[in-house]
Amino acid sequence: MRADARRNYDRLLAEARAAFAEHGTGTSLEDVARRAGVGIGTLYRHFPNRHALMSAVWEDAVSDLLARSHALLDDPQPCAALVTWLRAIVTHAGEYRGLSSALMSASHDDSSALARCSKPMGEAGAALLARAQEAGAVRPDVSISDLLQLTNAISLAAEETPDDPELADRLLMLTLRGLKADGCTAA
């Protein structure tokens, strides 16, 4: 990438991150381009659609969440490690209004740009889930795709209820109690 193209890309990404955090992922792409000081054509050359732009914004967080999952693989309490990681996902998804809904729709669309992020997240979560299941803390019939859909649903519910900042954690704990062979309460 040429230096000027790289600068445009970086500015678009920074402005998209700010706009998504401020106004949600449904914010006008024209506004994102304007805030970055480029035309809409430049935005579309770098990001052919909204999901591609969202994916690029989400990739930084995915890197952090993946690193966190790898560190949690050594946790002596597998259920607590899984809960910690799921909480981190819910927290991050709550930073961008509309991200949870987009991730839910992208989870069944392998052609979506957001699927690039979903696959490594699923693999990382599957490793944490397997440890918790092997320890007998989580029922064997629970899948990581179910857990990721649940975290997105919890994030979406919390997004729609901004006057209750504790809702996401309450819903996550309620969900986790249903996963456990004898009641998964951790962290």
Automatic annotation (TrEMBL):
The keyword DNA-binding applies. Residues 6-65 form the HTH tetR-type domain. SUPFAM superfamilies: Homeodomain-like, Tetracyclin repressor-like, C-terminal domain. InterPro entries: Homeodomain-like_sf, HTH-type_TetR-like_transc_reg, HTH_TetR, Tet_transcr_reg_TetR-rel_C_sf, TetR_SbtR-like_C. Transmembrane segments: none annotated. Keywords: DNA-binding, Transcription, Transcription regulation. Residues 28-47 bind DNA. This is TetR/AcrR family transcriptional regulator. It comes from Streptomyces alboniger. The lineage of its organism: Bacteria, Bacillati, Actinomycetota, Actinomycetes, Kitasatosporales.
